[in-house]
Amino acid sequence: MRINEFFSSFIKIHILHHCEKEEIYGVWMIKELNEHGYKISPGSLYPMLKNLEEQKLIRSRVEQIGKVKRKFYRITPKGKKELSAAKVKLKELIGEILYQ
């Protein structure tokens, strides 16, 4: 599946969802999205993570693991509000599309 603007929004919601549950990092998120049929490259994911961080929806911290530096992401209070609002809209949309 090619990542376009339409699916980009789904991916952002997916990222916020996982960042709310636990800290995530890029490679893990790529694998998680792949399990849901999204074929996303690091060249697409990392700018998306950077954008979410610039919008203050997630925050990052860097950890040195051996010789590797890994950036971990977690949701912010603003991100939680956005995710909550997105869930309301998604439930409404799904109800309209699937049950009406």
Q: Give Rg in angstroms.
A: 14 Å
Shape, please? globular
Provide the β-strand percentage band: 15-25%
What is the overall pLDDT average? 92
How many β-strand runs? 3
Enumerate the spans where pLDDT stays under 50 for 5 or more consecutive residues.
Answer: none
Task: Report the major sheet.
Answer: 3 strands, antiparallel
> What pattern of helices and strands is seen along the backbone?
HEHHEEH
In helices, the fraction of residues equals 55-70%
Question: How many H/I helices?
Answer: 4
Please, could you describe this protein's structure?
By secondary structure, this protein is an alpha+beta fold. The protein is built from 4 helices and 3 strands. It has a 3-stranded antiparallel sheet. The radius of gyration is 14 Å and the shape is globular. It starts with a helix and ends with a helix.
Quick gist of this model?
Helices cover about 65% and strands about 20% of the residues. With about 100 residues, it is an alpha+beta fold.
Write the layout of secondary structure elements.
Layout: H1 5-21, E1 24-25, H2 26-35, H3 42-54, E2 58-65, E3 68-75, H4 77-99
Antiparallel strand pairs: 1-3, 2-3
Helix pairs in contact: 1-4, 2-3
Keywords:
alpha+beta, 63% helix
